[in-house]
Amino acid sequence: MTHLQQTLQNPVWYALKETHKEFVIEYDEVKFYNPEICPFGAFTNGEKTKQALTAYSKLVETFFLVSENGTPVVDDNYVVLDRKIEGCQMVLNMLIEVEITEVIVPLTAAYKQEIYDLIWLVMPGYYKKRSFEMGNYFGIFKDKKLVAVTGQRMQTNNFIEVSGVVTHPDFTRLGYAKQLITHTTKEILKVKKQPILHTNKGNPAIGLYKSLGFKLTRDMNWWYFHTK
Question: By residue range, what is the domain housing residue 50?
Fold first, then answer.
């Protein structure tokens, strides 16, 4: 098994071990992001999660554990499993060229609030203002208003995840997401890393991702918890 294959099996774990180690909070082999950055955690041994989940729950009200196969152990006196979200991982197979007709702007820290507002409008619940620090973000503006965005989330020495693919409801079906994903994917390839992404099973956007050269590779479960 190559190192890339190994990291793809447990992306949050390896992101926090490698590129994003500055954001890690660790409890006995269970790694979490600083909750101001991203409410995600990962583990290699489900028997180790009970105390770790309880400790992390003191920092944040809701959070996720991400795993391909493992099942976390929970102390339900402190933490409640809200639901298990069945997700999947996609990896770029071969980039399929898309014509870029829009002006795509690299988004600096000056746009953190606009990115946050747009993502929460369309996809509320997990994105934090400091999630911007996880990677590069790109956007499309209309009349000086940010109307579409794509970013980078989990990263290791081998891969970078495309994430935060959001378009304002008034500007959908114009090809903005397709162009932004293509641009972001090319930026990842420039630094010689593997572009990947995660989504829910059955998401209609899977067809779009496939059309851009991504292929389904494995299941990736998102265990969503809240504190009592």
Answer: 3-87+223-227
